[in-house]
Structure prediction request, 424 residues.
Amino acid sequence: MRRLSITLGLLSAVLAVDSVRADTRTSLVEITLRKLPGENQDAVATYATGVKVEVLEVKGRWIKVKIDKSVGWVPRTKLSEPAASATAPVEADPRSHRLGVQVRQPDAMIRARPDAGAAVVAPVAPGAALTVLDGDAPGWLHVDDGHGHAGWIAAAAVADVGAAALPVDVAPPPSSAASTRARARPSWTLRGTASIGYRSIDQRFTSNATGGLANYAVSADASAAEIGVAALPRLGKLRLGADAAARFTSSNPGIDYPGPTLAPGEIPFTMFEARGTARVGYRLGPITPQLRLGGFYGAFLADEVANAGRLPREALWAATAGLGVEVAPPRAKVTIEARADVALVGARAQTDGLADGMSSTVGAQWFELRLAYAVAPHVAVVAGFTYERYATDWSGASERWAGVTEAHRLDHAQLVSFGIGAGR
Prediction:
């Protein structure tokens, strides 16, 4: 009899271990483990979509999980549901596996986005019970009203909000399809960067004439400042987005014109450049390749029109296309992004009376490499290198130097920059 008791005890222990092991889930999106339940708690580590997690504890809408050697809390809506055979850890309140809230304000609305100006999905009456799907947007909750309407409601409009809220008896959404549609609604990632750097610029001009300004090479060093912003909706592995940047360059004393055809002198100048790009990518593990399509505008502004080298002020417009790739390894603090763009069509305009020809064709290429290192949640130090190449061909009589009817100019620029990035 004693042997039978021991055998049954061992069998129960094995079954208990198997039961605990059975409660594993999969991350539905990229997840960040936090030290304590709550979106503003310190981050432990970040993992990609599709990672297996071991469930240790359930508290309201937060689940304590273990991945490799990392332990932390993650919202339950970012994980798959447990298999029917799994035995999940017991919650503090067993009445419901979902966090519920109750509407307490009149005229409350479920909106399409976490924004007071967003479109209304459905009105909700005071006292209505809602199922919380997510709460990653500060001041807003992603909810389902149980009648096929999912969207965002202001946290101030409901009772029992946050990680400390007690679950209430709420019926689950009428169908899994409705829940899937709710999870598929995109949430946005916004990033901003600001950086300063050193820029070197070279110009090499050749033509079918001789003497004076028919052929020359000049160069200059400059300081640069750049600001940029990117908006990226999260759609599972599909990555859509848009980014824009503006750069200001200043050089003083600028270009050193040595003569001898004209009097030698220095040519201070400023430059302004702006670009905007729409992109689409697909996440393949830690790597996200992208297709890019956008536009570019650049202006070269000599401080004085009547400068020593008679350099004209210029403006360049171009439609661009390119490829990009972003590398973001799981649990790593470093993100690497590389971009290569080319001008599909372009035009260069110059100061009247100083044009290098009657008509022009422009080609351009840009290559950018950027590295970001996270120093705090949502804050990173950014370093970048940019290489630019512009080739312009003119035909027709030059207004700047007599005898020139065909000309070519090749511009190179390199930029090394350092700055800071922030976003979520």
